[in-house]
Amino acid sequence: MIPFSPPRIDDATVKAVEEALRSGWITTGPRTKEFERRLAAYCGVERVIALNSWTNACELVLRWYGIGPGDEVIVPAYTYCATANIVMHVGAKPVLVDVLDDFTMDPDLLRKAISQRTKCIIPVDIGGLPAHIQDVMRIAEEATPLFTPKVNLRVDGTNPQMRLGRALVLADAAHSFGAKVAGLPVGAQADITGFSFHAVKNLTTAEGGALAFHLPPPFEHEQLYRFFNTMSLHGQNKDALAKTKPGAWRYDVEFPGYKCNMTDLQAAIGLVELERYDKETLPRRKAICNRYDQAFANDERFVAPTLKDADRESSYHLYMLRVNLATEEQRDAIIAAISDRGVSVNVHFIPLPMLSFYKGQGYRMEDHPNTYRHYSREISLPVYHDLSDEQVATVISTVVEAVVEVMGA
Ligand SMILES: Cc1ncc(COP(=O)(O)O)c(C=O)c1O
Q1: pLDDT reported for residue 244
Q2: CA–CA separation, 34 vs 225, rounded Å?
Q3: What is the CATH class of 277-407?
Q4: Is the shortest distance between the CB of 28 and ligand 1 below 6 Å?
Q5: Stretch 315-344: mean pLDDT, rounded?
Q6: Which of 57, 62, 14, 52 has its CA nearest to residue 32?
Q7: Residues 6+ away with beta carbon under 8 Å from 366
Q8: In this structure, which topology does domain 11-274 adopt according to CATH?
Q9: pTM score
Q10: Is the CB of 198 under 6 A from ligand 1?
Q11: Does the C-beta of 84 come closer than 6 Å to ligand 1?
């Protein structure tokens, strides 16, 4: 049996978590702060905050930007539900746009979808390939005349909508930590970038997420960090570590905030993962994806994913293979045949309009034909550090056999 995406847990991980446990400090503390500093250095930004998931981190962003009922947030139809669910959580409306053949948000359709109600755009770096973020930033700026900020908003003592004066670009980089745009790591392109460190991700903390701040002046990243830190701790102006200082017991609550901080146990895992990310994780994932490319990219029965082009390089999180000419039923039958042979594969993702909730909200798959076309043929193959070369060869031969069995050639 070849699993799809087990985390890399070895002695280094276990030792780091044990040290954190024995240190006597298990919630947010020195390891989380160190993890944040190292993430910021990696991404080339001044400040990163580590929180307990992409979902909660990015929901805080929408709340900080004052997004709510009557507002629209543009997301691709092709994404995991979390991208749109956070928009529902704050009472705003997700506006779906179709994707390009590389699975990322179509910039032309984005331009057409922007309205006076658009407060935020969330491009998604599916599978680890960055969306066309420079186009998205340009489109957001060009649409400035349409932007209608809320006048009475005061969130962090300021009105962030008046300050930015345009739709916020929040990058969904749940898959793309370590991917590159114009040679630079993802994190320093969008206004704010959200990462996920969920168990299956390239870099994991079991569960976790982070925000990299890259807002233009007059936003101050230190002040943003402090505000989000407070927001992630009930609006309490002192965190647990600050309160341990002798005599420092008194605190205030500035607003009814949320509870989504990262613990030092999670950060201990993250620090080990980050230390070996460029040296071991990315090169191994890249080698596996390149091996898949050798097998599939020149075979007309398949469509290989874009891993690299002139501007972008993937984090090699997923290898999203497509079976040319397969219907959705045939794709499902191919997956069943692959599974029968002991290989776990997956589908990323069931498009939002096909999920009961979003269908019930009136979203229709017919409005996003490219999303359906790619989803219906898609099969994600195993990619992870500990997958051996022999296992990669087994995956390749198994996929080919299953395709021959179902498609007959
Ligand atoms: C594209 C995308 N966005 C957001 C998320 C949510 O991340 P988290 O589980 O850290 O909240 C995921 C999780 O798999 C995802 O795939």
Answers
A1: 81
A2: 14
A3: alpha beta
A4: no
A5: 98
A6: 52
A7: none
A8: Aspartate Aminotransferase; domain 2 (3.40.640)
A9: 0.98
A10: yes
A11: no
